[in-house]
């Protein structure tokens, strides 16, 4: 994938040209009820939502972060875990995706056992090995109900070359941790493809890593 960034001059003679920020599209995948909506909300709004309902299709959440002086828009696609709410959307989830976050619920072994199926779905949508993936075990505040231990999860993560994060979208003390998860992905994406200030001759070919804001227009709107 080529990395690109649009340089535009909004007014004739404007100098320096306006730099449009890159957008990293990160999809959050996993069984219904594992806490995808809560995790993405926690990262973007900084708090645990008062109440959630099953996601239908997809919800978008965005946060602008700064890494080494570059402003980057992290666009989280909070996908639906329920098959009936996702089937018409699946192809859109995977289109030009930059990274995948797999979520399971540490108090629900079935959600952990579903992970191979979610990985297989990625494979079926031709996600290349260069697309970073990370594994998140959520609801660690419910230790008394733990069904998936760290050792088992770490083994699974290692076998798929993914970093593992165990966290809680709910625990107020875990704010830094939730933040670290998505920041880790963004750092990885940024280091994978350093910023290029011009389009390669002929426009490249492969989709750019990080759409410009202009390209984003016309997409779905955020309903968070
Ligand atoms: N105790 C605890 N509950 C959580 C946590 N994260 C989410 N929940 C609860 O788990 C339930 C499901 O959370 P959601 O974020 O809606 O789950 P989801 O993965 O988005 O589900 P779908 O949209 O159906 O795919 C809600 O009742 C949340 O309050 C957590 O870290 N700890
Ligand atoms: Mg949801």
TrEMBL record:
It is a lipid-anchor. It is found in: Endomembrane system. NCBIfam families: small_GTP. It holds the Pfam family Ras. Residues 194-224 are annotated as: Disordered. Its cofactor is Mg(2+). GO terms for biological process: Rab protein signal transduction. The keyword Hydrolase applies. Its EC number is 3.6.5.2. It catalyses: GTP + H2O = GDP + phosphate + H(+). One of its GO terms (cellular component) is Golgi apparatus. It comes from Synaphobranchus kaupii (Kaup's arrowtooth eel). The keyword Hydrolase applies. PANTHER family: PTHR47978. Its main location: membrane. Belongs to the small GTPase superfamily. Rab family. Keywords: GTP-binding, Hydrolase, Lipoprotein, Membrane, Methylation, Nucleotide-binding, Prenylation. InterPro entries: P-loop_NTPase, Rab33A/B, Small_GTP-bd, Small_GTPase. This is small monomeric GTPase. GO terms for molecular function: G protein activity; GTP binding.
């Amino acid at each position: 994938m080529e990395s690109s960034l649009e340089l535009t001059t909004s007014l004739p003679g404007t100098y320096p040209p306006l730099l449009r920020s890159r957008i990293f599209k990160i999809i959050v995948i996993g069984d219904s009820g594992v806490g995808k909506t809560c995790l993405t909300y926690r990262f973007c709004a900084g708090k645990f939502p008062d109440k959630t309902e099953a996601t239908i299709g997809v919800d978008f959440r965005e946060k602008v972060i700064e890494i080494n002086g570059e402003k980057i828009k992290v666009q989280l696609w909070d996908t639906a875990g329920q098959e009936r709410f996702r089937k018409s959307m699946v192809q859109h989830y995977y289109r030009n995706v930059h990274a995948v976050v797999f979520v399971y619920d540490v108090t629900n072994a079935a959600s952990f056992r579903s992970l191979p199926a979610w990985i297989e779905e990625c494979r079926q949508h031709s996600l290349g090995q260069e697309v970073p993936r990370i594994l998140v075990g959520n609801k660690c505040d419910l230790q008394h109900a733990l069904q998936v231990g760290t050792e088992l999860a770490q083994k699974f993560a290692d076998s798929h070359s993914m970093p593992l994060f165990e966290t809680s979208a709910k625990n107020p003390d875990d704010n830094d941790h939730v933040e670290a998860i998505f920041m880790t992905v963004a750092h990885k994406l940024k280091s994978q493809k350093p910023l290029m200030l011009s389009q390669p001759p002929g426009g490249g070919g492969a989709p750019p890593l990080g759409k410009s804001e202009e390209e984003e227009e016309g997409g779905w709107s955020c309903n968070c």
